[in-house]
Amino acid sequence: MAIAKPTTRKLSDLLDPKFMARLDSLDLLSRKILQGKLQGERRSKRRGQSVEFADHRPYVVGDDLRFVDWNVYGRLDQLFLKLFLEEQDLTVHILVDSSASMGLGEPAKRLFAKRLTAALGYVSLVNNNRLTISLFADGLRAQLPHMRGRNYLSQMAEMLLTTDCEGLSDFEKACRDATASRIGRGVTIVVSDFLFKQGYEAALRRLIGARYDLYVIQVLSPQEISPELTGDLKLLDVEDADTAEITVSAALIKYYKRNLAAWCDELRSFCTNRGAVCVQANSADSVESLVLNYLRRIHLLR
Amino acid sequence: MEFLTPLVGLYAAAAAVPLLLLLYFLKLKRREALVSSTLLWKRAVRDLQVNAPFQRLRRNLLLLLQLLALVVVLLALAGPVLSLRRGPGQRYVLLIDRSASMNATDVEPTRLDAAKRQAKIFVESMRTGSALSWRDQSDHAMVIAFDQRAGVACSFTSDKRQLAARIDAIEPGDGVSKLGEAVVVARAFAQSSGGEASGTSGEKAARLVLFSDGRIADLEGIVLGDDELVYQRIGRSQDNVGITAMNARRSYEQPQEVEVFASLANFASEPVTRDVQLAIGPNVHAVRSVTVPGCETQTDADTFRPGQATLSFSLFHSEAGVLEVHQLGTDALACDDAAWSILDPPRRLSVLLVTQGNSVLESALKACPIARLDPCTPAGFDALDPAAFAARQKYDVVVLDNHVPGHLPPCRYLVFGAPPQGIDVNSPGEVENQLIVDWRSQHPVLQYVDMTNLFAARSHRLLLPRDAELLAEFNGSPALALLRRHGGTYLIAGFDILQSNWPFEPGFVLFCYNALSFLGAQVDHDQRHELAVGEPITIENVPRDAVVTVICPGGREVDVRPDPSGTVRFPGTYDVGVYTARASQGPPRFYAVNLLEPQESRIEPKDEIEFAGLPVAAQEQGVQQANVPLWPLLVLLALMLVCAEWFAYNLKSRI
After folding, report:
1. How far apart are CA B167 and CA B149, in angstroms?
2. What confidence tens digit (pLDDT) does each residue in B137-173 have?
3. Which residue among A257, B7, B119, B373 is least enclosed by CB atoms within 10 Å?
4. Extended strands (E) in A148-269
5. Contact yes or no for B416/B460 (Cβ under 8 A)
6. Distances (CA, A) of B172 to B96, B111, B176, B178
7. Are residues A81 and A101 in the same domain?
8. Among candidates B37, B648, B30, B646, which has minimal Cα distance to A227?
């Protein structure tokens, strides 16, 4: 595969060229070998006209005689049909949280999420997959549907770089809108902090289906994982301006961490129980190592 | 444990504790912090409240520590003391000597201050029976300050602050110490146990605590029970030189010549040389150096004789004045370093002779050294205005020859014949052929007068009041009597000299001379100018509406009004020095108040004082603080609590 130069300067703002060079060798993988619409570069479960042999089966009346394996007929005097694995394209749908909460953190979760999205999108586009990127807050805020090929790299980069994180989050509405426009089969990747007050279960249930693999990537900032707050504070929710008055103490921090761990565990077990994969990331970690190591290990990329 | 000032602590607590709580619970201004979601925080807070019931307490640890520190400070403010004394409540009488010797400065600043300090320590050590105490047994005390008089500074109370304030208010005096009256007063107060003293403490005898140097004049006359008195000795040194005697006298022959005698006593064992200064008013007349030998002590006979030195000055001074003898050295006791004497102007007598004509008497009087002899008829004397006569003081002596006047202005009278009315001398009749049977030849009036041959053909029979002084006696009646009435002095001879052979006797002229000298000396008899400390200044014959201003040595002025009989009494001669009495008219009068008391000048404190048969030794140690004040410990505890609070605060913030 040819080494791709960064197509726009803008994408290089998000991704390091060396990193992109390494991404060129990767491809997205669906754990289920799924059917695409166009003949793509990937094996589908559906056997069909392709070059890669899969199996033989006895001929039954009505089968296409073009696929009879005449060599076997010559040797065994029985009719067998040759079955081929059909290679199909993959639909990749990335849902990125761009509500106000993603703007927080040091380093910001927004940046982490966008770089991750850019990396995954880059991989998808380079591998000629059908890519849809949706930014959501309280509903879909921006969407680039059905991109295919390197030509879309700049478009993707521009969208990611120009969209700010603001507004409330309504995950369920976003998922509803996203699934309405979803076609084909493939992989759905959700990048968010998953700190939704109204819950994520109903929304995720919409995304989980027979046709799509679901990958949930939860991004948290180091300040959320282990808060460094002191004194008497009035905590202000960045989205709905809700307040919580706390006096920081060891016990409170302990209970916060315990709650955070419980929240993350719930999300993970929810996903695992439904065949989805949950990945938890710290915004202070490098996107590169997450993409190149961890996502390969869980077979989202290969 | 007891609290000295529980109310202060309570008031402070009432103000401070609610204030602290109010400050704590006032909404504190919280810092705002942006978070992605309050979701987890709210859950954490809820968990904190639900899962740890003591979290609220833990969160309030700072408040608790603050409250604890405040409470400790308040306790310290209430003045807790740990009493080391055991047993039921006692009653004490603190006898504080404020006599002259207690002004000695051998103990800084003075012995009286040292005594007051010790007394206050004693008071501090008493147990209070406040409501916050664990016992209801409280000590009561009263304070008596004494010199020759005893003054109750504070009656029985357990209020330590009142006792301390009253002890502080005790003023030093220059008097002589006499304990008898103080003991009587103390016992009287102790027996009439009323008021605050109640319960068991009233049944026990009060203990006397004497703060003194032990130089007390009347110890032998005081009977004490065993253990009734505790003697706290005050003072260290015995080095003192004092003037123990002083006298100034005009020569009778040469009235301008004044002889001044003074005696110095040295109470130290080493001889000392001192300059002694004689001053008349503000002018120094002479300074003389005198060496006073050291005192002699014989331990076996327990006799003590101070080193004595006498010195005399003679000077010519023809006016009135205040003489001051001052030893210029410095020693422990200042009030015996000077003595004063009031010098009267030299005077010769003016005599008024009231007679129908008596050449014998007149010529005998003329023979006497008098300034003036004015004859006057009885009618002329009766016509005089008595008030003006008394006020002008024109005549020193009035001689009444066979005249009973209608009124008697206060003066000195030499009476021949019938006694005047209104002086309690009755004359119910006459007696005849009287011979002298006895006379007092030692009396100044009859000095050198031979009355052996005196015969009176007729004499008034005199019935004298009991206070009259009988000088000579006929066989049937008193012949000569001396009587003081209504501010006047009466020398009464109950017979007409022309009815007797006295004019032919040589003793008659001598009698006249003596009588005039005696009565002339009586001019100022009621006016004693040299007083001991504490003796009142008495001025007689002051107009009713007049005000006499007495100027004390310290410059303090006191206005005194006369009583209905025209006598002014000023008892406040508590300090040595010259007192000036200034009336609205007339020249100012001077009074010298001197210590002149070897007992007080001997300032060596006694190790043992002996009452009537009961020796009481001085306490080995001074008054010890029997109450341990706990406030320093409490302040330390408060400091530690504040440190703990600071630590807890930091611990909380650092997480």
Report:
1. 17
2. 678 889 999 988 888 988 888 888 889 999 999 988 8
3. B7
4. 186-192, 212-220, 232-237, 243-247
5. no
6. 10, 10, 12, 15
7. no
8. B37
Q: Give the per-residue SS3 of B300-336.
A: CCCEEECEEEEEEEEEECCCCEEEEEEECCCCCCCCC
Count of Cβ atoms closer than 10 Å to residue B302 Cβ: 7
Q: A247 — contact with chain B (CB < 8 Å)?
A: yes
Closest-CA residue of A relative to B35 is A237
- Looking at beta carbons, which residues of chain B come within 8 Å of A259? 40, 43-44, 47
Identify whether the C-beta of residue B234 lies closer than 8 Å to the C-beta of residue B119. no
Q: Residue B310 above 80 pLDDT?
A: yes
Report chain A residues whose CB lies below 8 A from the CB of B32.
Answer: 233-236
Give the domain range for residue A141: 9-30+90-297
Same fold, B350-510 and B530-594: no
A256 and B CB contact within 8 Å: yes
Domain B350-510 has CATH 2.40.160.90: no
Determine phi and psi for B104, rounding to 5 degrees.
Answer: -60, 145
Q: Which residues of A are less than 8 Å from B45 in CB distance?
A: 244, 246, 252, 255
* Other CB atoms within 10 A of residue A99 CB: 28
CB contact under 8 A, B38 and A243: yes
Is residue A271 situated within a structural domain? yes
- pLDDT beyond 80 at B649: no
Give the one of B30, B36, B45 whose C-beta lies nearest to A101's C-beta: B36
Residue at token pair 């949930």:
A216
- Asked if A9 is an interface residue toward chain B (Cβ–Cβ < 8 A), one would say no
| Tens digit of each residue's pLDDT (9 = 90 or more) over B445-458 | 888 888 888 888 98
Rounded Cα–Cα distance for residues B553 and B353 (Å): 43
pTM summary value: 0.53
How close does chain B come to A274, measured CA to CA in Å? 25
Residues 6+ apart with CB under 8 A from B459: B430, B431, B432, B434, B474, B476, B477, B479, B494, B495, B499, B500
Please, are residues B337 and B240 in contact by the beta-carbon 8 Å criterion?
no
CB B402 within 8 A of CB B417: yes
